Amino acid sequence: MNDVTEPVSATLAERAKRALGRRNLIFIGLMGAGKSAIGRMTAQALGVPFVDSDHEIERVSRMTISELFTAYGEEEFRALEARVLKRLLRSGPRVVSTGGGAYVNERSRRQIKKGGLTVWLNAELEVLWERVNKRDTRPLLKTENPKQTLENLMRARYPIYAEADLVVLSRDVKKETMVEEVLAAIADCKKAETP
Ligand SMILES: Nc1ncnc2c1ncn2[C@@H]1O[C@H](COP(=O)(O)OP(=O)(O)OP(=O)(O)O)[C@@H](O)[C@H]1O
Ligand SMILES: O=C(O)C1=C[C@@H](O)[C@@H](O)[C@H](O)C1
Ligand SMILES: [Mg+2]
């Protein structure tokens, strides 16, 4: 238990950093929720390193996510994702943004839960669709009706994402506002750090 009273002058970022301790902050949520964009800015605000599992997978494999799906299929991609996450989560504190399907995979979910505090960027379909329909880099949305596919993924995944420690509603507000809400959620989080 941390029963040290925070000085009134501590900024939101300082309070969040203290609450996070040595844990990682792990962003989860659907494609377009803002895990990469908001994750990077949150790391800057906290003054801790940022890593993005999709980017790290592309770096180590020297292939794009789309190429990996085409060459090896989703199952192999998930196995690689789990291996990369295990390494990224080894030491904290860091901000780790995951790919949209990572938390849905049992092996990765176990590692993520063990690896730190999870924050789900929860977003409505229209918000996600507006963001993802501009690019065709997401292999799971290369279907006849990608908006319907996105809705199906929401139905299947939202009950699982809901297991996160923290939930922040991702919507069309300034990214800085999103970061502030994430920091406030961490600062108010009652989940104690295990030694
Ligand atoms: N609050 C916001 N307002 C406006 N645009 C946003 C906001 N948050 C994120 N975006 C934009 O939405 C797009 C998708 O965001 P981002 O790439 O961070 O999503 P993601 O959750 O990492 O998706 P994926 O799972 O596909 O990696 C980006 O262009 C990003 O700049
Ligand atoms: O939602 C998903 O399953 C995915 C999301 C992306 O971040 C990538 O990890 C990949 O396109 C799979
Ligand atoms: Mg991303």
UniProtKB/TrEMBL annotation:
Single GO MF descriptor: ATP binding
Principal location listed in the UniProt entry: cytoplasm
Swiss-Prot/TrEMBL cofactor(s): Mg(2+)
Cofactor note: Binds 1 Mg(2+) ion per subunit.
EC id: 2.7.1.71
Gene Ontology CC, one term: cytosol
Gene3D superfamilies: P-loop containing nucleotide triphosphate hydrolases (3.40.50.300)
Reactions catalysed, as given in the entry: shikimate + ATP = 3-phosphoshikimate + ADP + H(+)
Keyword Cytoplasm: yes
Record pathway: Metabolic intermediate biosynthesis; chorismate biosynthesis; chorismate from D-erythrose 4-phosphate and phosphoenolpyruvate: step 5/7
Keywords: Amino-acid biosynthesis, Aromatic amino acid biosynthesis, ATP-binding, Cytoplasm, Kinase, Magnesium, Metal-binding, Nucleotide-binding, Transferase
Job description of the protein: Catalyzes the specific phosphorylation of the 3-hydroxyl group of shikimic acid using ATP as a cosubstrate.
UniProt similarity note: Belongs to the shikimate kinase family.
Listed name of the protein: Shikimate kinase
Lineage: Bacteria, Pseudomonadati, Pseudomonadota, Alphaproteobacteria, Hyphomicrobiales
Gene of this entry: aroK
